[in-house]
Amino acid sequence: MLCSAAISLDSDQENQFALLTKVDSEDETIILPCSEITDFDNFNKLLKSNENYQKRIVRKLTPLVYPSQAMIKSTVSMMRLAMSRDVALLYNLKNLMKKKIFIDTQFHKVIKGVLVKKFSKSNDESLPNKLIDESISSVLNHCGDWDCGRLERKKKMDLKKLQEVPDDSNANKTDQ
Known about the structure:
single chain; 176 residues; two-stranded parallel ribbon; 8 helices; 53% helix; globular
């Protein structure tokens, strides 16, 4: 099903988008956002083992953060750069719903570092962990709405409501 908000790209635009989201290491290429959990696991391993790769990802994430906006908007942008809706749906911040634990990933640490750097008012006053965790948790709780998930859910609910409404057209007719 196509989403009304889908963007069609010509071949030049697709190449530009691939250049923006393709991040190479010496021995591996990872296309972002990761569409499979195995890709995201490899992405996390690479972030953990390769400091230069992690710095490159931080440089890609930093321009997505706008301290003048709500932190959650920046968090959504950063997470969508690295993980698809399907991958994000597999995670929860902490182990509450038998999902994978996002707080244990290296990407969580990277996001946290970028948010602290951009949102802290001074070097002496750091951003509270609770605020960062609430932002990430909210994004993971609502990632089902990414990629037209909300539109699809709304259409299903509307269809269900239509099916539940009784047909009153015969009740309004009078015998002649």
